[in-house]
Design goal:
The complex is a heterodimer of chains A (421) and B (276).
Chain A: H1 2-11, H2 13-55, E1 60-69, H3 72-77, H4 81-91, H5 98-105, H6 112-122, E2 130-136, H7 139-145, H8 162-173, E3 177-181, H9 184-187, H10 200-231, H11 236-249, H12 253-267, H13 275-299, H14 303-311, H15 316-344, H16 348-352, H17 373-381, H18 386-420
Antiparallel strand pairs in A: 1-2, 1-3
Helix pairs in contact in A: 2-18, 10-13, 10-15, 10-17, 11-13, 12-13, 13-15, 14-15, 15-18, 17-18
Chain B: H1 16-23, E1 27-38, E2 41-52, E3 56-60, H2 67-74, E4 84-92, E5 95-96, H3 104-110, E6 111-114, H4 125-135, H5 142-155, H6 159-162, H7 175-188, E7 193-197, H8 205-218, E8 223-227, H9 231-237, E9 240-245, E10 248-254, H10 255-260, H11 265-271
The chains are: A mainly alpha (421), B alpha/beta (276).
The complex binds adenosine-5'-triphosphate and magnesium ion (MG).
Chain lengths: 421, 276
Amino acid sequence: MSVTATKSRYQSAEFADRLRRRYAAERRFRLAGMAAVGIASLMLVVLLGSIVGKGYTAFWQTQIRLEVTFDKAQVEEGNTMPLLRQALYAVVPEVTDRAGRRSLNELLSSGAPYQLEAMVKANPALVGTKQTVWVLADDEVDQFMKGFIRRDVPESERRLNDIKIGALDKLAAAGAVKSAFNTTLFTAGDSREPEQAGIWGAIVGSFLTLTVTMLLSVPIGVAAAVYLEEFAPKNRWTDLIEVNINNLAAVPSIIFGLLGLAVFLGFFGMPRSAPLVGGLVMALMTLPVIIIASRVALKAVPPSIREAALGVGASPLQTVAHHVLPLAMPGILTGTIIGMARALGETAPLLMIGMVAFIVDIPHGLTDSATALPVQIYMWADSPERAFTERTSAAILVLLAFLILMNGLAVFLRKKFERRW
Amino acid sequence: MSVQTQYPTASVPPRAETQVRAGGPGVKMVARDVKVYYGAKQALKGIDLDIQENRVMALIGPSGCGKSTFLRCLNRMNDTIENCRVEGLIALDGEDVYGRTIDAVQLRARVGMVFQKPNPFPKSIYDNIAYGPRIHGIATHRDEMDEIVQTSLERAGLWNEVKDRLREPGTGLSGGQQQRLCIARAIAVSPEVILMDEPCSALDPIATAHIEELIDELRENYTIVIVTHNMQQAARVSQKTAFFHLGEMVECDDTEEIFTNPRDERTQGYITGRYG
Ligand SMILES: Nc1ncnc2c1ncn2[C@@H]1O[C@H](COP(=O)(O)OP(=O)(O)OP(=O)(O)O)[C@@H](O)[C@H]1O
Ligand SMILES: [Mg+2]
């Protein structure tokens, strides 16, 4: 009797209708989800596309070929610019007036003489000979060659005058203009001249800063997490500490910068713009992230493992060191690397402690003046030159590459450790 | 997880020496007036129990009556539970296990434990067994360790099944094999007493029979306390049975006596299946 009753209920038209509505709701939900993923992907593609589109040209740089006579007197005086200029005038002998020649001078990068000096230093036998040399072009020449300065606008509104364009055309026709991989970008420090500016100084600064951050925040953070999770009694004090750690993780990073300014620079008198201070500030900022991630990872280790270890007579410390910590390691590593990646991308606190200065030299130590990659991006983004705009995007690409690398490492390590355990 | 140690020094007037005499010869562990509180809630209301050497003692009783709690007192596993408080006296060979002469870590090496759910370390089978001897410095050479691993696995009746895969993870074994691995792990540190909390509850009848046989063999060298919900199992493996009810130890006697001629009607009700 009851069987027929339920049977008829689930076979009724009303039930079929209800079922249809359920499936419709599910379909709508899936569509909404797919739309959300689609929109997110689209935005990511637009963002990446615009950065790549703006930045990829910065990885190439225009060079000009000149027949340079390494005059002994001039080389010894360290005054090699005139040698380059003579070589250039020889290419366009028709330009003889002073204004015209000044225009020609501007085709070459002000850093070109350093190239000659480096050549002589590497091979002193060059002095007194005539050599074919590829030297850096000025950034505006570079922009022109890349098509960002158009020749069809009137000369008065153009960044390159007719004399320069004429000379370039002549050089190009002779095959004396080429676009080469921009090694300067990866080997030089900052510069006022875009064609001589690079991100190596900023990368080294970031590396030094992150080293300090990691050396401080990882051991302290993991130790704190282990103590809080495995040893500390649960009482009002540890609750208070826990709440505060969670709050610290949400504090805006600029506040940590202000703290660093007041404490490390103001009170302890540490040097400004130093990776040491940057690292300290970042360590403060990263600590709560690492502590929270580590605690979550420790919490996820099943209590049965602890009981098993204690059950065979392991001390609490042995239990943690031999069993709990290794099992929590993938999670701790992931949290750490994500914290580090966040520190790598962080700008605001570094601004507060003076790592925003214009620094040409590559830093060699923790107390040298330095800047960091995101700060370099911030500074270049502020520069008016078209050439710096493309370098900004290029630097962003490099930063993104590092971030992807770090996150990839996190995923890789997690996978690897998970398999082992 | 904090490790809080309670030393019920003043609260229990008669000390270990007198208690052991009360326990008589051949008594491995004694419990006198053991009370356990989880916060304000009392889980054990004064347990008195003698555990005889080289015997199997079964603890039976309805769910929540405090069998596991009592078992965990015997090797101070309750230390790891926040706000768990133990009062009364528990002695091993006449020494107060909550006293100052025995350290909790040392105690757990002497009183091993096998848990309800098999919990092998996520390491190789070999390392599962070798871990205990290693931290206690029992084996100094590789050969010695190999021998300990082999004999432990043999005694646990697992050697033939795993001898060719000692390097494979212990978590890759079947449930019954894992439980025998855990027993081997407990044996490897040569404890004097082995506590087992429902060791067969996750196993099929064949694996259960295996482990019951094993328990019977282990009795020669060890003192065993086993918690079980299976009356037949208690009857098969134990010589003594204690019936717990609502935090009290109602009755403890020879197993045969308990099952054929229980004195308390609560015991009778439980073993005949009227409640539980
Ligand atoms: N960690 C704990 N915190 C608070 N109360 C607990 C805790 N562990 C056990 N208890 C309580 O103590 C009492 C005894 O629990 P115990 O685990 O010893 O029972 P048991 O006899 O082993 O039951 P079962 O046969 O179901 O395993 C129960 O009422 C239980 O709720
Ligand atoms: Mg239990």
